[in-house]
Amino acid sequence: MELATGPHARALGYLRQALGIPTAQFRDGQWEAIRSLVFDRKRLLLVRRTGWGKSMVYFLATRLLRDQGEGPTILISPLLALMRNQIEAAGRIGIRAETINSTNTDAWRRIERGIREDKVDILLISPERLANESFRQDVLAALADRVGLFVVDEAHCISDWGHDFRPDYLRIVRVLQAMPGNMPILTTTATANDRVVEDVATQIGHNVDISRGPLARASLRLQNVAMPSPTARLAWLAQHLPDLPGSGIIYTLTVRDAERVAEWLQLQGIDAHAYSGQLDTEERIAREQALLNNEVKALVATVALGMGFDKPDLSFVIHYQRPGSVVHYYQQVGRAGRDGNSAHGILLHGSEDDDIIDYFIRKSFPAEGHVEQVLGALLDGNGLKVTEIERQVNLRRKQIQHVLKLLSVRSPSPVVKRGSRWYRTAVPYQPDREKVQLITRIRRQEQAEMQRYMEHDGCLMQFLQEALDDPHAKPCGQCASCNGRPLIPVAFDETIAREAALFLQRSEVVIHPRKQWPHTDALSSHGWKSTMSDTHKAEQGRALSIWGDAGWGQIVKHGKQVVGAFDDRLVGAARAMIQERWQPDPFPTWVTFVPSHKRPHLVPDYARRLAEALNLPFVDCVRKVRDNKPQKQMENSHQQTRNLDGVFQVESHPVNAGPVLLVDDTVYSRWTLTVITALLREAGSGPVFPMVLATTTPTST
Amino acid sequence: MQTSSHILEPDAQAIILLCGRFGKHESDKSAKPLSLAEYNAVAEWLRHQDLRPASLLREEGREKLKAFDGAQKVNRERLHALLRRSTAMAMAVETWTNQGGWLLARSDANYPVRLRRRLQHKAPPILWGVGPQELLNRGGLSIVGSRDADGSALAYVRDMASRCARQGVQVISGGARGVDGEAMEAALEGGGTVVGALANGLGRAATAKKYRSALMEGRLVLVSAYHPDSRFAVWKAMDRNKHVYSLSDGTLVAHSAKGSGGTWAGATENLRHRWVPLFVLAEPPLPEGNRALIEQGGIPIDRRLLRDDFDLASWLETPSALNEEPTLADALINGHQKDSDTESADASAAVFEEYKEYLVRCRAEGEKPELLPLVWPALKSVLQEPQGERDIQEHFADAQLGQIRSWLMKAVEKGLAERSERPVLYRVSEQHARQEESTESGRAQRGAPAENNTTSQGRDLFSQG
């Protein structure tokens, strides 16, 4: 054993100082971890449940290494910042922590200076930053020369078998693999089954020690509720959410569902807000803060509210839809009750879950054709910007970026980015079909396991632990199964259900007007480029539904694809939406429509009936003067606008100077509406309000 | 291509930590990587201690290092500071290998045999490379020459390189403009294999369009002793010469100035060390440098090597065969020594002359002189192809972007250079290029002294824009 003045005693002293508890002791495994990092410069993988004290391991290791004159610790983590209580604990032992990520660029300069003056002991950076070449060169250089300890948090993201695989982590793995043996490396995770642990350990390199502990979460009370229809789930939420103590998170699979559920709960007088990756950073932080401070009942969130979020007193996590895997579920539900107080984890699941998960599995790899298009463009060029690639390939910008991202983390990679330009390297590209198939198969197995969890009638926590290969699994004694009856009643009120059904029917979508013409000459026959003048811009519009969605979306789809005409109910629904909820201002004084050669009667027939219902004149003034390809096949702005160049004309004599409602059946890129709006305005019309029956925009899944 | 090229042997890791530079932004406080001589001293010490470089990464080596008593400017603290750069090194290695590149350290089994055997302790401790490593052990003919080689020398080089390609003789060169570039390009076009030993980092070359297909086909390997982002510097070019020579079975000097310049330095260094046979192009007009190299032991060669029935591969094995009959080269060397220097007269000397006169004029007229006329020859050499201002800046070690921009604008005003928009690119103006061409051919016909060359150029250069 160590002497009183030995490292163990010193570390224990620091632990007590950091926690502010003079009698504190190390948790099982903590000191061993610290010792192997500081004195043996080992590589270590810590698999420990949330709340075990992983951060204390790197705080104390950093303190001891700094005492020995070593350089600062670098901590790669998707967290946006350490928690306030963690920073305080570190501060008590003189560890100064700083964070650099894309949300705090104003602070970079100050932090860089701090690094150069050796005033930073732990630097927390996001995986995206480490994967960024210019960040490495410009910001990290001063630190990289003397890092004393390298820590990677949420290490399960390293494994591409893992449910949370992130491309940026591949670059981190390669940095770890390239690291000479004199650098201590700590990797940590709270969620990993055997396969993932093994994969992470082999990827990090030889001689990795693994320290693993039990994953059971004593404070969590689990319950599963099968409710196929969204109506039932909305009604259940509205009725039972107010009875749950404290505040929490409701997870949905899609952005659209997060917004819809939040809107519904608000209508029901419950303080819930949507949260997704589509919010801007400021808004995200504000909503996270509101939840942290218990100022809202719930955030209705996609997985975007994920690893970066830590609220120890979160008192429930409800899933509106079923996640893709048990590991995923354990991780999300595990955000509740970290402070040790009792918390609820409730899984609702419905009939649409499988479709959505299938969609996610399909789109996780770009089509080979997409990859070939992008590589082909790069092969001919001497460095291309994404906008330049867009001109050469018929892919959405997001698809191009997805392809480039996945290519750039291949090892070695067929592409490399310098500045804002992408270059084709000499590395040959071969599609990795076997791996794609293997990973897809694993995703399917995970999906099936999740299905078994939903149907499981034994202890739910035990099921989760066993799925995570936790040898300490045993019945928890407090879940719905162990209890022998539901923790929260499964029933709900019929009147609320009827309201929910109506609500779902009128899930309308705002159509935001485009504000810029393309920077290319795609619309040269109109002379429109770059800046769009205010007199060309459309007003905010509305889509009555989402294509094929429950509610009107199904009826729109049926009308267009099967009947060849739109049902009168869609006229009534649109009239109600326009007059009662949307209330465009100034209110349109006439109605016109987007003409089509393929279906010459479908839209005008509907628009005429809608005009009648609104008691407005119907004016046929937009002409399609040239055939073009279906706009839906055009994947990016350049292709979409070029496909519209000179296609439409507006006859000026019937155009009325009043505000106009511009009707079409579906909206995809918004370019058709944008172009016709500008033509209408040039022909002398007043403000243009686009109205469509359904949006087919890809993000509306 | 290996996918694990980022996982290096521990010995290599230690050597790279000690000697490698990992980026362009190294702070002044960073420990200075060991020079070749310094590393050799440390390696010597390690051998004495019965240690390997990798030992420095382990507890045992760190302990022993406490007894390190210093060698040259190397002390314990500096070694510690260098060895602490593991994260920086891992990131640099990962970045480079992720683009398909690789690194070799002198300790690696795959380190090129020719470099190790010929250069010994002068072999670079680290090689950054891209392309098939095995080409580095294949030998071949290296082709070098100064940047101002004339048209006939360049034509010879092209012809020679494509013959090499056809006959399966690898071409090795330094990647510079002029002779190097012509040789590599012609050999690649001819379907041959090529080694480029570059004086700057490989970052740009590795993704340049002109090399891409050859790299993808495995017919080109590029190596450099410097970090991929490292810029060209004269000392690096001097240092690189020995790599070009020692990777070959023989080196052809197409054109050399006498007594100065990289080609001269490289060729005489090779003659001193006898790394490989030195062939010197001896076609008229014979540059003074070529003549001097032949006098010092270079083997004269001429167009007879370009005969269709000439077997370059076997000649490279026994390169003396050509001396049996008196050659055109012999005649040149023995006969016309006096007037051989007119053609190779240094154009830059003329610029200096002209500039002196210009300074005198300025002083007389009380005007401040411009620097552009002095800088122009350097800019011009870069502007043969359209280039962006940043690319142009990249060529020079000490130029600020703003200064480059202002010179470029001046040059455009004076009609020396042309500027195209979107993207903004500069190149030598057609008008200027035509003027130069006409004076050159005129000079060749008249045999006029080179000074006249500057008159038309001089008008543009010294005119007030």
How is this structure best described in words?
The complex is a heterodimer of chains A (701) and B (465). With 701 residues, chain A is an alpha/beta fold. Chain A has 4 domains: 7-212, Rossmann fold (3-Layer(aba) Sandwich), CATH 3.40.50; 220-354 and 453-493, P-loop containing nucleotide triphosphate hydrolases (Rossmann fold, 3-Layer(aba) Sandwich); 361-434, Arc Repressor Mutant, subunit A (Orthogonal Bundle); 506-700, Rossmann fold (3-Layer(aba) Sandwich), CATH 3.40.50.2020. Helix content of chain A is 41%, strand content 15%. A 7-stranded parallel beta sheet of chain A has the order 3-4-2-5-6-1-7, with helices on both faces. In chain A, helix 1 packs across helix 3 (54-67), helix 10 (230-240) crosses helix 21 and helix 14 runs antiparallel to helix 18. The radius of gyration of chain A is 29 Å and the shape is globular. Chain B is of the alpha/beta class and 465 residues long. Chain B folds into 3 domains: 10-96, no CATH class; 130-340, 3-Layer(aba) Sandwich (Rossmann fold), CATH 3.40.50; 347-462, Arc Repressor Mutant, subunit A, CATH 1.10.10. Chain B is built from 20 helices and 11 strands. Chain B has helices spanning 10-19, 36-48, 59-65, 76-83, 86-98, 113-119, 151-166, 179-189, 209-216, 234-246, 262-273, 288-295, 312-317, 328-335, 347-365, 372-382, 389-394, 401-413, 430-446, 454-462, and strands at residues 101-105, 126-130, 141-144, 171-173, 194-198, 220-224, 250-253, 278-281, 299-301, 417-420, 425-428. Chain B has a 9-stranded mixed beta sheet, with helices on both faces. In chain B, helix 11 (262-273) links the parallel strand 7 and strand 8. The longest helix of chain B has 19 residues, at 347-365. Chain B starts with 9 loop residues before the first helix and ends with a helix. The interface between A and B is large, with 46 and 55 residues.
